[in-house]
Amino acid sequence: MKPSARRGVTFEAVRRAALSLVKVEEGTAWRFPAFRTGGKLFLCFREDLDSVVVRASFEQRDEMIAADPETYYTTDHHRNYPWVLARISQLRPDAVNDLLQMAWRAATQKKPRAGKS
Q1: Is the pLDDT of residue 41 over 60?
Q2: Hey, what domains does the chain have and what are their CATH numbers?
């Protein structure tokens, strides 16, 4: 197996990658380690710390799950929200930065304002 194809990262590796992004605040959400930008949550660890929940569009989530269901998944609880879960034991180290940048961008996007009727 090529080194770049190796799977599995640690909590600390994900934490360092999140903190390397611009204007990221470390804290908690529901008593679990979490990261925000501009006050908006983009990354939260699951209770058992074996998965992360990252902000993603519904389309991105569905594509990620279809491409790699061993790594990416959703739950009944998260199904109606724009988030995808990723098993950190299955994440490729070279994919972590891209995953977190996607989540960070999703959190920083301005939503269009509703027009007046």
Answers
A1: yes
A2: 3-108 (3.90.1150.30)
